[in-house]
């Protein structure tokens, strides 16, 4: 099937089987390897991308679902102004360890920062969104601190 989408800000037409996982399409067909795949079951969040601005699991999304959708990968986030802000906060709070989960966190946090209702996001919701990405290195406290800082809530 021909999938017409906006990929990282560019109108794109991709030929793929409708049942191809978006994670495979991004990594294997398009060479966008920043989207990491770990569990391949939607549990770990390493493959999180933005679909029409909302965080979604690329390993659970079929290519056929992406026709007419704006897809933004960590490479797309990295090309924009939001990435530098996120990276600076993560560095300030030592929220980086091995880096495998980092693309999932970056896209998840980018979605939060772009959310029109970000000022109304309670601490519990921020922590729930952050916990949607599995990290085995940091224990989340530095990541939560970085996000609180980005949202202007650093204590």
Automatic annotation (TrEMBL):
Keyword Iron in annotation: yes
GO molecular function, one term: metal ion binding
Domain 2Fe-2S ferredoxin-type: 1-77
Pfam families, sorted: Fer2 (PF00111), Fer2_2 (PF01799)
Cited SUPFAM superfamilies: 2Fe-2S ferredoxin-like, CO dehydrogenase ISP C-domain like
Keyword Nuclease: no
Keywords of the record: 2Fe-2S, Iron, Iron-sulfur, Metal-binding, Oxidoreductase
Top-level taxonomic group: Bacteria
Leader peptide range in chain numbering: none
Name under which the protein is recorded: Carbon-monoxide dehydrogenase small subunit
Native organism taxonomy: Bacteria, Pseudomonadati, Pseudomonadota, Alphaproteobacteria, Sphingomonadales
